[in-house]
UniProtKB/TrEMBL annotation:
SMART domains reported in the protein's UniProt record: EFG_C
TM helices/strands, residue ranges: none
CC per GO annotation: mitochondrion
Protein name: Tr-type G domain-containing protein
Keywords (A to Z) from UniProt: GTP-binding, Nucleotide-binding, Protein biosynthesis
Highest taxon above the source species: Eukaryota
Length: 756
């Protein structure tokens, strides 16, 4: 299972709390001091953010979890992408002050894309001033994450009623509505559990709460709502509830043993979204998170229709590749059938390569433990694979590869580029080797050589900063980083090709003998409603039967003629003959090919590249596209005008002015929130500091601007916003894809590229 969320929601802190509670750690580390277990890279400790996902096996009661802590920053979305591909369930965190944020929706969509149905929501940071359980629940509905969020716990800000009157922030306890008990934490993070009475009259006079405690009147309503809402998805539970007497205490007598199986079944079907709450920093609620992860999230046998037998053929997915100075190449794998044993040979079904396994390791972040086997369902690390990359399928033998490969992991498209200049000619080879190694560990880093210049493409400015620091720290290479530049794209030209301009055969020589290579293409731009293939960077490439052609690296047999044609197409699409930009939104169908029988199939790679390039020359230059972002800027009322003026001056397109609580994606969203019917929304008084803040003047003075803007104009936006808002402005952004540019902007881009 993975912990996923927007940046700074507390994933790494919750991981530390879990490791402490499960007795893996004696003392929890802190993000602020750079002492956490899973953030062990120098850049992670220096910046206080997670850059790469880290996997740790956690033992809790009768369960073993493979816990994966993921980054929250959009620039490292590839790490969430690869983790989402191999997990069975996820815990999604929300900062209870901010609610659902931009990247919360981003990681939610990634989980949808890889079919991770079962999720638990953890409302974190309830100890902060302004944290609100109620607002966070409403935020889930407003942002349409799930129509049926179901609160399994209620927060107790304090066991002293006077703290509620003073609007004191904090969290000292939780009410577990399923097990019907109270958890109370002391200042050292240790808890005591108290069962709640099952009689309504006794509940008002219990020793756990003072007589006038504001939480007590809401307990029966919360449990009644939980059981009523859950019974909508279970006939058995519905019948049990209908047979109860109509007294206020009736629902309190339903045992956890009756509720838990129905809750688990509904979670596995994704009918409901279980919601827990607490404070990872204070270790409040961590035990409950682990209990409910074990009870509700699926095991490997719950996610497949047929459970593989113990002696089934070995089948694994390599979901992450890491370089270590001492251990060499480390391949993270998830075992989908069979058992992986030490010192065995395996076969890479994706690349058609044999690999020798030297060691099997369970990785505890930076620390490792050698094991003899990796059984079905486990996540572990193989040391010794030389050719394997992220997304490859590993099997026991070549015969097992005939069953096909497991679904791949698709890297997101790069949007920002920078040139890399080795300090001397002698450094060139070491820089290229380091870049190749880095792109193997992080597939969202793309490397290309363009007109004698070495270019690195990444997901954002921060991503490129990390690439720069990792090249220096981990590979010790000498180079200078050029200016960051946005990655533009060129579309397909629509000029009619005259009969005399149709590209003919490509002529070359092999062993002094002339040969002709012909490849026939059908090329056109994609229609607006047609979706591009992310494996081909937004293009669609088909074979002669009309089926999608896999990318060149995905062919198990690299001598296959179509694998070589795919190599040629890939080379041409990466650099347009007009602008040297990558081509996008192009539909290419390979109609056929001809080459001499005695020639190697590799001649098709060169032939298809040259012929396709001639086609694009004949079609003329297509429209240029640049990456846009969707932006939400929250500022005080008095600086709203300055923020709007700055956005419009930098090519921004205003969508809406709203309250600062509206999310980045909601500014132009016509679809309304999910209805509150059948959802228990707790009262505002359960979060005293938030109910006080909501009525204050400062909360209502914040305004939000929603806009589209070109990424090229927003690379230094944090500095601009800080200056114009006096340091009070904050912003969120998310990728909004590529958009066609105007004629004037097209000329600007061509001048910038030196092509005008």
């Amino acid at each position: 299972m993975a912990l996923v969320a927007h940046i700074d929601s507390g994933k790494t802190t919750l991981t530390e709390s879990i490791l402490l509670k499960s007795s893996y750690l004696v003392e929890a580390g802190s993000v602020d001091t750079g002492s956490t277990t899973t953030d062990f890279l120098p850049a992670e400790r220096e910046r206080g953010i997670t850059i790469q996902s880290a996997s740790i096996p956690v033992k809790w009661k009768d369960w073993t979890f493979n816990l994966i802590d993921t980054p929250g920053h959009a620039d490292f979305g590839m790490e969430v992408e690869s983790a989402s591909r191999v997990i069975d369930g996820a815990v999604v965190l929300i900062d209870s002050v901010e609610g659902v944020e931009a990247q919360t929706k981003g990681v939610w969509r990634q989980l949808d894309r890889y079919g991770v149905r079962s999720r638990i929501m953890f409302l974190n940071k309830l100890d902060r001033a302004g944290a609100s359980f109620r607002s966070s629940m409403l935020s889930l509905l407003a942002h349409r994450l799930h129509p049926k969020p179901m609160a399994l716990t209620l927060p107790i800000a304090s066991f002293d009623s006077a703290d509620y009157g003073r609007a004191e922030p904090g969290i000292q306890g939780l009410v577990d509505l399923v097990r019907w008990e109270v958890w109370k934490w002391d200042s050292e993070g240790k808890h005591t559990r108290y069962p709640l009475p099952v009689d309504a009259d006794e509940l008002e006079h219990t020793d756990i709460f003072p007589p006038d405690h504001p939480v007590v009147p809401h307990l029966i309503e919360a449990r009644t709502s939980l059981l009523d809402n859950l019974s909508m998805f279970s006939e058995d539970l519905m019948e049990s509830l209908l047979s109860l007497p109509s007294t206020p205490s009736a629902y309190l007598t339903v045992s956890p043993e009756q509720i838990m199986p129905e809750l688990r079944a509904a979670t596995l079907r994704n009918d409901i979204l279980p919601v827990l709450c607490g404070s990872a920093f204070k270790h409040v609620g961590t035990d409950l998170v682990m209990d409910y992860v074990g009870e509700l999230l699926p095991s490997p046998t719950d996610t497949v229709e047929v459970v593989p037998k113990a002696n089934a053929p070995l089948r694994m997915l390599a979901w992450k590749v890491v370089w270590d100075k001492r251990k060499g190449w480390m391949t993270f794998v998830r075992v989908y059938s069979g058992t992986m044993k030490q010192q065995t040979k395996i076969y890479n079904a994706t690349r058609g390569q044999r690999e020798i396994v030297s060691k099997l390791v369970l990785l505890y972040a930076a620390r490792h433990e050698e094991v003899d086997t990796l059984p079905y369902g486990s996540v572990g690390v193989i040391i010794g694979c030389k050719f394997t990359r992220t997304g490859d399928t590993l099997v026991a033998s070549m015969n097992d590869a005939l069953d096909g490969s497991l679904p791949n992991i698709v890297p997101p498209p790069a949007v920002v580029s920078a040139s890399i200049i080795p300090q001397s000619h002698a450094d060139m080879q070491s820089v290229q080797d380091a870049l190749t190694s880095l792109s193997r560990t992080d597939p969202s880093v793309r490397i290309e050589s363009q007109e004698g210049q070495l270019l690195v493409h990444g997901m954002g400015s921060l991503h490129l900063e990390i690439v720069e620091s990792r090249l220096r720290d981990e590979w010790n290479v000498q180079f200078e980083f050029g200016r960051r530049r946005v990655g533009y794209r060129e579309g397909c030209g629509v000029q009619a090709i005259a009969e005399g301009d149709v590209p003919g055969p490509w002529q070359t020589q092999i062993a002094g003998k002339p040969i002709d290579v012909s490849v026939d293409f059908d090329i056109r731009p994609l229609e607006e409603e047609e979706k591009g293939d992310p494996l081909w960077d937004g293009n669609v490439v088909l074979d002669k039967t009309g089926k999608l052609l896999p990318p060149p690296d995905s062919f198990a047999n690299q001598l296959d003629p179509m694998a070589n044609v795919a190599h040629g197409i890939s080379n041409t699409l990466s650099s347009s003959p007009h602008s040297a930009l990558p081509l996008s939104r192009v539909r290419i169908q390979v109609k056929g090919y001809r080459y001499p029988v005695q020639a190697p199939t590799s001649v098709l790679a060169g032939g298809s590249a040259v012929i396709l390039r001639q086609y694009f020359r004949a079609l003329g230059m297509g429209p240029l596209m640049e990456p846009y972002i969707r932006l939400k800027v929250a500022v005080n009322e008095e600086t709203l005008g300055k923020a709007v003026k700055d956005l419009t001056e930098h090519g921004g397109e205003l969508l809406d002015l709203a309250t600062s609580s509206t999310g980045v994606s909601e500014g132009d969203q016509e679809v309304g929130p999910y209805p509150e019917d059948g959802v228990y929304i707790p009262p505002a008084e359960l979060s005293p500091s938030a109910s006080y803040l909501k009525g204050s003047a400062t909360a209502s003075m914040r305004r939000a601007v929603h806009a589209y803007a070109p990424l090229s104009q927003m690379l230094d936006y944090s500095n601009r916003l800080r200056a114009l808002s006096g340091g009070h402005g904050i912003f969120e952004m998310e990728n909004a894809g590529f958009r066609q540019v105007s004629e004037s902007r097209r000329l600007e881009i061509l001048r910038e590229l030196g092509r005008a």
